Amino acid sequence: MAINPVLALDQFTRQLFPLAEPGEVFFLRRDGIQFRADVPGPRGKQKMTGKGAFFLTSNRVVFLREGRVPEGEWTSFDIPLSLMQNPHFRQPIFGANYLDGHVAPKVTAPNPIAGTAYWSLTFNKGGCGTFLPIFYRILGETNQPGTQSQFIQGAQAGQLSQMAYVDPNDPSVLYITQPQPIPQQAMMGYQGTATAPPPP
């Protein structure tokens, strides 16, 4: 896990999204999420919470806080699939469904955490019938190094809606085309904030 991965601005939607790593494929975005992380630090565990959206890619889950974020506070969390430990989808009798687990530090990131952290993503709006099959399929393929799977290749080619089951009760937004970042100069003034700029 790493704090504040690099973000980009989508030239079509004008929304922030995680800047893609080499070969990374975006699958979906899910809004209405409550995020929590218990992150080790010099003074013990630090609890971090926020509301916003997450992005599921072929490499990771990235949570992005919504609204204006005070100066110096975190805006996003990067949870690499390859570093996830025992993720579980939970359906409590009372309360919303949530996905949780532990994650090791992403030591190559600019802002890695100090040790293994607990994280959870609570789905406050709608079901998970679209998200869960895609998530577990990608997670299973993450631990099988080698050639890129047909599922990932299909998503990269814009065929995800033909390959994935779409649950009408799941408000996840599938990526039919991959997000395209706008030029770097257009990002000035938006770095360090989880608020998308106003429409042009």
TrEMBL record:
Question: Which ranges of the sequence are coiled-coil?
Answer: none
SUPFAM superfamilies attached here? Answer: PH domain-like
In the record, what terms sit under GO molecular function?
chromatin DNA binding; transcription coactivator activity
Q: Which CDD domains match?
A: PH-GRAM_WBP2 (cd13214)
Q: Which GO terms describe its cellular component?
A: nucleus
Provide the protein name.
Answer: GRAM domain-containing protein
Q: What's the source species for this entry? A: Vitrella brassicaformis (strain CCMP3155)
Q: What is the lineage of its organism?
A: Eukaryota, Sar, Alveolata, Colpodellida, Vitrellaceae
